Structure formats: C-alpha cells, structure tokens
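Duplicate of #3305? Posting structure anyway:
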C-alpha cells in the first residue's frame, strides 16, 4: 500500500494546491495522474513528485526540488496516453 498511499496523498495535495489552475491551463489527467507501466516514478507529475511538496507552476511546466535528484521539471504533454493511477489494479 505504500506507493498507492503516496499517490493518493500527493494527488490530494496537488488538487488542493493547484487543481483549479492546472485545469484552466489545460493539464490532462494523464499529465498529472498517469502511470507508466513497469516504471515507478516515470509517469505523470504525481508519480514523479512522491512526497515532495515544493512544487511551482510556471506556464507549461511544473518545477520542484527532489531530495534525491535535485531540481526537476515536468512539461505538459510529456506522456499523453498514460492511465490514471486509480484505474490500475495494484
């Protein structure tokens, strides 16, 4: 449950902090909540964020600071065909 709990918690954080703005600016479900099969932390924004909460939105990209990877950026449309995490059986 660890990964799924992190995806849920990060999704709640994201929606509360950026949900309305991201929707207005055209971010898709795939962009934000998609998973890349067999590649943990390579999917949409929420999958990449993990428990990080230093997120900023600047136009077509989100930026954050990862304690492991350093500065990170995710661009809208990077993975347009990902399945939302809640539609996948763990």
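Output from current build:
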């Amino acid at each position: 449950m660890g990964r799924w709990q992190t995806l849920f918690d990060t999704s709640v954080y994201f929606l509360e902090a950026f949900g309305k703005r991201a929707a207005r600016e055209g971010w898709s479900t795939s962009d934000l909540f998609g998973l890349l099969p067999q590649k943990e932390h390579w999917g949409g924004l929420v999958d990449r964020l993990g428990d990080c909460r230093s997120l900023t939105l600047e136009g077509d990209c989100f930026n954050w600071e990862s304690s492991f990877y350093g500065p990170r950026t995710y661009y809208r449309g990077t993975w347009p065909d990902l399945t939302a995490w809640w539609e996948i059986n763990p």
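Confirmed duplicate; merging threads. The radius of gyration is 12 Å. The chain has one domain: 2-80.
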